[in-house]
Structures are given as C-alpha cells and as structure tokens.
Design brief:
7 helices, WH-like_DNA-bd_sf (chains A, B), HTH_ArsR_DNA-bd_dom (chains A, B), homodimer, DNA-binding, DNA-binding transcription factor activity (chains A, B), alpha+beta, 115 residues, Arc Repressor Mutant, subunit A
DNA sequence: CTCCTATATGCCCATGTATTCATATATCCG
DNA sequence: CGGATATATGAATACATGGGCATATAGGAG
C-alpha cells in the first residue's frame, strides 16, 4: 500500500509530471530540467528525489552532472505501469507540448555555466 | 493536466484507495463504508466527494441512502484506466484484504440506525 | 407540518507539501 | 592543495490536506 501511495503522490504534482514527460524524450541533467520548468534548482532536486523514491526515475552520475532518466520498472510495478500510461497521456496538453517542444534544444553546456 | 492531477490526488490517500477496493466488490452506502473504515461520517463523505470529482465513483440516491459505486469511466479516461489497474492491485495487501473480508457482512440496516 | 435518519457542509486544528534562500557536498581542473 | 561548478540538503514560509465536531440539508414516516 505504501509503495502504491508513494507512486500516486509522486504523480500528483504538475511539475513532476512535466519532468516525466521531458524524460520520456531523453535523459536530462538537473540544470536542463530546471531550464525547462523555470523553477529554482533546489526545487527541481527535491522533485527528482520524490520521483526517484517512487521508482519513477533513475539517476546516473557523469562527472559533475547527474543524469536522470525514466525508471526501468524494476523497483515498482505501479511505477512501471503508470510510466507506460504516461507515454500516451497528456501529449495534447498545452503545458506539456510547450515544454516538450523545447526539450531538443536543451543544452547543458549552454545552460549550466550561466546559473 | 488538471483532470489527471485530480485523479492522482484522489488516489494518494490510503482510505480513499480502501473505499475503491470495497466498491470493487459491490455498491455501498455511506454508512457501510464508514463502518468498514472506522472513520467519522463527515470524513467519509468528503473522501467520497473527492473520488466523485475525479470520476472514480458515482452516486445513486435510494430514498434516504446514497449508494456509491465505481465510476463507469465516461468522465475521465485516467480514472477508467486506474480503476482497471486497481482491480488487480493491492489484493494481497494486509490492510486491504482485512477490509474486503468484512464487505460481505456490511448491512446498512444493522449499521445505520445505531449511529 | 413535525420528528427522525442518512448524508453533506462549515469551521477548526494538526500535519504535510511546494517553494525559495542559504549553505553543504561532490567532482573536476589547475 | 585551492577554486570553480553541478547538485543536494536544511531552515523558513505559505499553502494544501485529512481529521473530527457541530450543524445544515434532504428525504421518509406519522
């Protein structure tokens, strides 16, 4: 039960849903997600921790950067199912499509050194 | 997006999940749900309203009673999908199975007049 | 209409959550 | 080592949420 609730709570915030939709396109570092959402960096880190605890995302260190990608579903069947659903959901949502449109142009080298 | 968030928030509370699992067995009135959960009656009414606003349950008046059943999925595709998933999920959870075991014995006539 | 019962709503309180700022940690480079 | 950069953590604050009590609403019985 707690595991299920953790996944549902993680999916109950629009900014976290936006993060998942972004990561559905490609792996991203924290500063790239920050640029896409327009939030403060600590806020993004906390959202990512909540998503990670729910098994919805995984992180991979690459030097100074931390790359986040969608979870593989091993840690939670609920997360795996919902990630599958989310691939088809919300693509027509104006907020989502606006953010997804700028994902290809997110460049960590252009973003991070200007924080 | 708001519709999706509404469904996820509705599913983010253990008592509301328990209500859905109970209604998966059969239609129930408020006092029967109250007896199953052990909560105050107004609390149950508020949970039911949140579930109804998300499209997860529907109500049907029958005289003095209000019978709640699972939503038919017409109001929200997200609710419809999650209700389908929930049918298979959490059946082995101790909290859930304990409540489901007593659903067949819930009797509105025996419960409600003793409030 | 009056009384009774089942449910809904308003108010209040305790707790949880999202956010930001300031600061700590970690990693690379010289 | 020391400095710079990317990310994480802690404290503080505004707001949302779950809970119960008191009360309002709605429908049936007499």
């Amino acid at each position: 039960m707690k595991e299920f609730i953790r996944v549902m709570k993680a999916l109950s915030d629009p900014n976290r849903v936006k993060i998942l939709k972004m990561l559905n396109r490609r792996e991203l570092c924290v500063c790239e997600i920050q640029a896409g959402l327009g939030l403060a960096q600590p806020t993004v880190s906390k959202h990512l921790k909540i998503l990670e605890d729910a098994g919805l995302v995984q992180k991979r260190k690459e030097g100074l950067w931390v790359n986040y990608r969608l979870g593989d579903g091993d840690s939670s069947p609920y997360a795996a199912t919902l990630l599958g659903n989310l691939k088809h959901w919300l693509n027509d949502d104006p907020e989502i499509s606006a953010i997804l449109a700028q994902v290809p142009d997110l460049n960590r080298d252009a973003i991070c050194s200007r924080q």
